[in-house]
Design brief:
alpha+beta, 16 helices, five-stranded antiparallel beta sheet
Length: 475
């Protein structure tokens, strides 16, 4: 009898120990995420009762905290809030946080593990939390130029230092004022939230990195890269008839312009954005080669880091007609402006894909560096030789092709226009992707919709915005 009781006691004791170990491990492992969760009301109330770190672009605080006489001890303020909203996000008592306000919430609130020692010292000395500030990579000149260039349009601009991955501009229009959601007037906050979500222009949508669209002819860069990697050259001849009947269908694919003959070089095909030529390229190299090349540029996965990006996609299981359309960026090909900026950046960077990022440093209140970003390569999308051939082809697009409105005096500019049609009931999407060699910058401009009656095409609508962003960085 006693031995049976002892066995039960031992088993019960082991179960209790296992339970305690599990609870302790669960607490230790989940504590950071639980503490940083926007749904944790206890932590949220405590954070609203204290200061919060700044977010800077250049030497200017674009987000800061000041004391308040309202319901909370402090309130969040946003300088040029709509212009930076896609970068900073909002900080709301009711609706939580997003973008950098969420990604770096622990650092801004002073509760990150990297700040633990300093916080312990502060508690021992009776001081409050030591919040950290974020030094972003955003260049205010490029940000303002992008914002101004997209005035009156729904769209996005992403500019990247292609040697490091630093994001120099990240604009989504029309944008919104995060301060309206950060107010301590909770009734006004709820009304602002309702108004923003009911707005047909969708100002809270992040068109730069969290939405995906048909990239149109800008995707021809990926198809061209796949062909060059397969052994083609810029002078390889491609059939370029005025109209191409898609295999297995009666549908005819046409061209927006005269391609220059029934057979042209691959470089000429890119310069004039010849649809039938690139459809034939896709048919010759096949869907697997294009899909593999797209993946090497980043399609099919998120970029990670502090850029919470949507996943761009190239479809699978295509028939011949679908392959031809996908090769020109139509059918079910989708990409974010961030993704297409990365494609241009990798080409300009001799094939190396750099991870895009927003924050270069996290700084303590005494300006000491808490953490610093190290530029990270995500791999080699194409060989150096292929990249240099693509650079030559993209420069031909700007010097004498469809992208001439992107020219900037004194700079070597490469680019590619795109005009994507996916719905007959709306105007086409206008795209331009390109780079400026001397500035080490790649830019994607996307125009979803324009309020004016201008020609909504990549060359007419998007390329001039690219030029404005590049010119801003010259000053």
């Amino acid at each position: 009898m006693n031995s049976a009781i002892r066995r039960v006691t031992v088993v019960a004791g082991l179960l209790i120990v296992a339970l305690l170990v599990n609870i302790s491990a669960d607490y230790v492992l989940r504590y950071p995420s639980l503490n940083n969760s926007p749904q944790n009301r206890r932590v949220l109330i405590a954070q609203f009762a204290g200061p919060r770190g700044d977010i800077l672009a250049g030497n200017t605080a674009i987000v800061s905290t000041e004391k308040s006489d309202g319901q909370f001890a402090y309130k969040r303020t946003y300088a040029d809030g709509p212009m930076y909203s896609a970068v900073t996000g909002y900080y709301s008592f009711i609706y939580g946080r997003n973008k950098l306000e969420q990604q770096y919430n622990a650092e801004l609130a002073g509760t990150a593990s990297s700040q633990a020692l300093q916080q312990l010292i502060n508690r021992l000395m009776g001081r409050g939390p030591d919040v950290a500030s974020l030094q972003t990579t955003i260049d205010p000149r490029a940000q303002k130029a992008a914002w101004k260039g997209l005035k009156g349009k729904q769209g996005a601009v992403v500019a990247i230092d292609y040697t490091t991955g630093a994001i120099l501009a990240y604009v989504s229009t029309p944008g919104y004022d995060p301060a309206a959601l950060s107010s301590d007037d909770l009734a006004a906050t709820q009304q602002a939230w309702t108004d923003l979500n009911d707005d047909p222009a969708a100002p809270m949508s992040d068109r730069a990195g969290r939405e995906i669209y048909p990239p149109g002819s800008t995707f021809k860069l990926v198809t061209a890269a796949a062909a060059l990697e397969a052994g083609w050259t810029t002078e390889t001849m491609v059939d370029s008839p005025p109209r191409l009947t898609l295999p297995g269908t009666s549908v005819q694919l046409g061209n927006a312009h005269d391609c220059g003959g029934d057979q042209i070089t691959l470089q000429q095909a890119l310069a004039v954005s010849c649809n039938t030529a690139f459809a034939n390229v896709g048919l010759r190299i096949g869907q697997e080669a294009i899909a593999a090349q797209a993946a090497r540029f980043g399609f099919g996965s998120s970029f990670g880091g502090d850029v919470n990006s949507a996943v761009s996609s190239f479809p699978t299981g295509l028939d011949q007609a679908q392959t031809a359309m996908s090769a020109i960026g139509q059918y079910d090909v989708t990409a974010s402006p961030l993704q297409m900026a990365v494609v241009a950046a990798a080409i300009a960077n001799d094939g190396v894909v750099m991870q895009p990022y927003f924050v270069s440093q996290v700084q303590a209140t005494d300006l000491s560096v808490v953490s610093q970003h190290t530029p990270t390569s995500l791999g080699q999308a194409v060989s150096i030789s292929t990249a240099q051939q693509l650079q030559q082809m993209m420069q031909a697009v700007v010097s004498g092709g469809t992208g001439q409105r992107a020219q900037v005096g004194g700079l070597t500019i490469g680019g590619k226009t795109g005009t994507a049609q996916s719905d007959a009931s709306r105007a086409p999407y206008a795209w331009f992707v390109g780079y400026a060699t001397q500035l080490h910058v790649a830019v994607c401009v996307f125009v979803q919709n324009s309020a004016t009656n201008e020609d909504q095409s990549g060359g007419a609508t998007a390329a001039p915005v690219f030029r404005q962003v590049i010119q801003s960085l010259q000053s």
